[in-house]
Amino acid sequence: NARFVEFFTDDQVLNFRRLINHQLELRAGRVVLRQSAGLGFEFDEQAVARAGGQWTRIA
User: Fold this and answer.
1) pLDDT for 12-53, tens place per residue?
2) 31 by DSSP, 3-state: which?
3) Tell me, what's the pLDDT at 28?
4) 31 pairs with which residues across the strands?
5) How far apart are CA 42 and CA 46, in angstroms?
6) Are strands 25-27 and 30-32 parallel, antiparallel or unpaired?
7) In Å, how far are 17, 41, 55, 56 from 24, measured between CA atoms?
8) Alpha carbon distances (Å) from 31 to 25, 45, 59
9) Longest C-alpha distance within the chain, in Å?
10) 41 within 8 A of 21, measured Cβ to Cβ
């Protein structure tokens, strides 16, 4: 329930857009919420696998 959301119009700054299956829509300076339940997107498992590597725990 935040009043602000960080939004990038392309994937040059942040590659998050490459990891999800549905992009957020921006209209008149506002993010348009989808009617589906949840966050409005799902992670693209293949894209996540390509982007990820071995996880390392930092103590």
Assistant:
1) 766 788 888 888 888 998 888 888 888 788 888 888 888 777
2) strand
3) 92
4) 26
5) 12
6) antiparallel
7) 9, 8, 28, 30
8) 6, 24, 37
9) 44
10) yes
